[in-house]
Structures are given as structure tokens and as C-alpha cells.
């Protein structure tokens, strides 16, 4: 009996070592994915600098699989913010490192009374792969102009943040779309889209 216990005691570390090796080779569902860092250039955004900082912070606070940071040089950015006189429009992502996204922050929406930070956060949501849902409530960032000018919420809700995390769950090696679609957010109620 003592010999059997001694034999089992000798085998136990070998069995545990094998089991630990298998477990580490196949991470479970709670494994932390690599965070995708997207860089942006806001050098041509003018008066939108403050709303951009706040919108980026709101997204960085809400999501886990992607992080937005200023580019070290304008030419190295994955996407750009720029001030325009027209309607806001954005490249529909998800954009990945090495991408070429464009966020045009249109003054016409501000002139109609819409909140600049909400506009910026909403357009950034498109960069991260979220479509419009104009029929949604004010608490839903991608409802855009739907709730009217009194809505100033500039934070994504839990479902929107979860979708962005799913968009970037595979890390920077994820499949990228082969098309480039631009979403034109006409914040006065008309909706136009086009593909490029």
C-alpha cells in the first residue's frame, strides 16, 4: 500500500505539469485579448479639439479591446478628425492600425443646435464600426440626431461598447473589410450614405 501511494505521489507532478501545459496552450473564454491601439490626427480639427478629447476619453473609458490615442506625427495616424463647414461624415469601420479613416466634423450640425461632443463621439463610433440607429433613445450614442437637439449624451451605452469590443476581439489580426463606406450624418433628419 505504501509503495502504491509513493508511486502516485511521484506521478502527480507529471500529471499536473501536463494538465497545466494543455490549459495554457488553449486559453479559456476569459483570456484577455491584445488591445488594438488606433491613432488619430486632430491637427485640422480647429474648435473641435475639446470635443475630440472628451469623445476619445468617453470611448476609452467604455471599451477594453481598443484604445484611441493621438498619433506621434500627423502622417502616421490611422484616422483623422477635421473641421468642415458641411454635415458630419465618417468612414464606417471598424478601422484597424494602418487604416485610413476620416471624420469630418461638420459645423452645420452645431449651427442647428446639436452638441459638439455628442457629434464627435457619435462619429467616432462609426470609426469603431457602429452603424446609425436614429430611432434609438438619447442614452444610445448612435441614435445621433434622432432624439433632437436637447440630447447631449456623448457616452456609448453598454450594448454599443460591447459591440465595439466584439469588433476588436480578435486583435489587430482581424479580417478587415475590403470596401470603404462613408456615412454622412445629416443631423437635420435627412439621411444619406455612399460607398467609395
UniProtKB/TrEMBL annotation:
GO terms for biological process: proteolysis. It is found in: Secreted. Disulfide bonds join 138-151. Its cofactor is Zn(2+); Ca(2+). Keywords: Calcium, Disulfide bond, Hydrolase, Metal-binding, Metalloprotease, Protease, Secreted, Signal, Zinc. It catalyses: Hydrolyzes proteins with a preference for Tyr or Phe in the P1' position. Has no action on amino-acid p-nitroanilides. Its EC number is 3.4.24.77. Zn(2+) binds at residues 122, 126, 132. The keyword Disulfide bond applies. Its main location: secreted. The keyword Membrane does not apply. The active site is at 123. It comes from the Bacteria. Binds 1 zinc ion per subunit. Ca(2+) binds at residues 115, 117. GO terms for cellular component: extracellular region. Residues 1-25 form the signal peptide. One of its GO terms (molecular function) is zinc ion binding. InterPro entries: MetalloPept_cat_dom_sf, Peptidase_M7. Belongs to the peptidase M7 family. This is Extracellular small neutral protease. It comes from Streptomyces monashensis. The lineage of its organism: Bacteria, Bacillati, Actinomycetota, Actinomycetes, Kitasatosporales.
Amino acid at each position: 500500500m505504501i509503495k502504491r501511494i509513493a508511486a502516485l505521489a511521484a506521478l502527480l507532478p507529471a500529471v499536473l505539469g501536463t494538465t497545466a501545459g494543455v490549459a495554457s496552450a488553449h486559453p479559456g473564454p476569459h483570456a484577455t485579448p491584445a488591445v488594438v491601439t488606433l491613432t488619430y490626427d486632430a491637427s485640422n480639427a480647429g474648435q473641435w479639439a475639446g470635443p475630440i478629447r472628451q469623445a476619445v476619453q468617453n470611448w476609452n473609458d467604455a471599451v477594453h479591446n481598443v484604445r484611441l490615442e493621438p498619433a506621434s506625427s500627423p502622417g502616421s495616424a490611422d484616422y483623422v478628425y477635421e473641421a468642415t463647414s458641411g454635415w458630419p461624415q465618417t468612414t464606417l469601420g471598424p478601422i484597424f492600425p494602418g487604416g485610413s479613416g476620416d471624420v469630418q466634423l461638420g459645423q452645420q450640425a452645431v449651427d442647428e443646435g446639436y452638441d459638439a461632443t455628442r457629434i464627435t463621439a457619435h462619429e467616432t463610433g462609426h470609426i469603431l464600426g457602429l452603424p446609425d440607429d436614429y430611432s434609438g433613445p438619447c442614452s444610445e450614442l448612435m441614435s445621433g440626431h434622432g432624439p433632437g437637439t436637447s440630447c447631449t449624451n456623448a457616452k456609448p451605452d453598454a450594448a454599443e461598447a460591447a459591440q465595439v469590443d466584439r469588433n476588436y476581439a480578435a486583435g489587430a489580426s482581424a479580417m478587415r473589410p475590403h470596401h470603404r463606406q462613408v456615412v454622412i450624418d445629416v443631423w437635420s433628419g435627412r439621411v444619406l450614405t455612399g460607398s467609395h
